[in-house]
Amino acid sequence: MVIIINNIIELLTTKIPLGNWVENFINFLINNFGGPLNAFSSLIESIVGGVETVLAFPHPLVFIAIFAAIAWKLKGKRMALFVTLGLSLVLNIEMWDPLIITLASIITSVLIALIIGIPVGIIKAHNRVVDLITRPILDFMQTIPPFVYLIPALMFFGLGNVSGVIATVVFAIAPPIRLTYLGIQQVDEELEEAGHAFGANWWQILFKIELPGAMPSIMMGINQCIMLSLSMVVISAMIGAGGLGKPVLRSLNTVDIGLGFEAGLGVVIIAMVLDRLFGRDS
């Protein structure tokens, strides 16, 4: 009996080499799939560079005018005034170049997250097996600390904007999936039954009944995706990503209160602009 108890205690106190298993698995992927990973990294880098080139092409004042016109069209003149004043302040405190890099990373990350997330949410709403499989995965993704996402991204793609974009996509993809699923689930069943009664096929039901009915929830998912992307893009400065996170990190390392305040103000302004444009009404 004593021997059995000692064996149980020894078994419980023996550390499972989980970290070594994960490290070996990642090394296996890097060693055997280095070519595809490099190709994917080059693709993401070219996309981010292209978006950054487009955003940096017009003069900052022209860019502000275009953004203000979009804000006026979408939300009204008060929002246009806020966008003009906010972006002008960013330009004045010399945070414009980091802002453009941050916007390019956000746009790329959000587009990738939505291209993957919304279709997965649709499939999740129509397939119970996919729902059961993705539910614990999404729970895990939304509870793990954001800094943990930086480690595999850094190991697979190295320092730079690509690692930041990949980590941001993984961090921000859960809300579009879940809110697309939730929106479709909340569509009135009587509307779907009426569609079937008039002979609508699956695609017609999806695009003419379910997605329009789920659009408020989907837009909330897009808004949450943008906000999470912004927060992760700033954190990604720790693995070499550019943008507004870089001066924030530099201010922490050098205890430069002024630089930290200016960079933080730039983050706050772009966060408020994006939130008001793609979220709640101003």
TrEMBL record:
Protein name: Glycine betaine/proline transport system permease protein
Domain ABC transmembrane type-1: 99-278
SUPFAM superfamilies: MetI-like (SSF161098)
UniProt cross-references to Pfam families, sorted A to Z: BPD_transp_1 (PF00528)
One Gene Ontology molecular-function label: carnitine transmembrane transporter activity
Location(s) in or outside the cell: Cell membrane; Membrane
Keywords of the record: Cell membrane, Membrane, Transmembrane, Transmembrane helix, Transport
GO biological process: choline transport; glycine betaine transport
Organism: Halanaerobium congolense
Transmembrane domains' residue ranges: 47-72, 79-96, 102-126, 147-174, 225-245, 257-278
Domain of life: Bacteria
Predominant place of localization: membrane
